[in-house]
Amino acid sequence: MLVVFGIMLYAKVPALVARMLDAKIADIRGQLDEAARLRDEAAALKAEYEAKAREADAEIAALKAGAERQAAEIVAKAKTDAAALIERHHAMAEAKIAGAERAAVAEIRERAATAASVAAETLIAARHDAKADKALVDGAIAGI
Q1: Which whole-number Å values give the CA distances from 18 to 12, 65, 75, 103, in the listed order?
Q2: Residue of 72 and 120 predicted with greater confidence
Q3: What pLDDT score was predicted for residue 38?
């Protein structure tokens, strides 16, 4: 056994094993460094996407607020327009009613005048005879 150890020492096996272990350690250290770099890169990407998500949330909130403001303005304008439309229709209805009242009053006056004229004509025709006509004509001639 001692001979085997001697051959191993002569063939520089411990140095070879040490070099192999050093190479393996360097390889593992490189992998650890790569893992740390990837972890840092992933953390940076995560932070970047979280910031983008916050910006998107803020933009969504701003858009929502703008849409709500526009909706409120549209509703207010619609209420104002509806009130103005109702007022115009009310004014038109009042004007139409006033016109109908004036037409009714004019028609009643016309009918009253016609009725009075017919009544006067009937009364005059009933009470007026040829003798009264002669007196009227004579009075008119005398006035000339």
Answers
A1: 10, 69, 83, 124
A2: 72
A3: 97
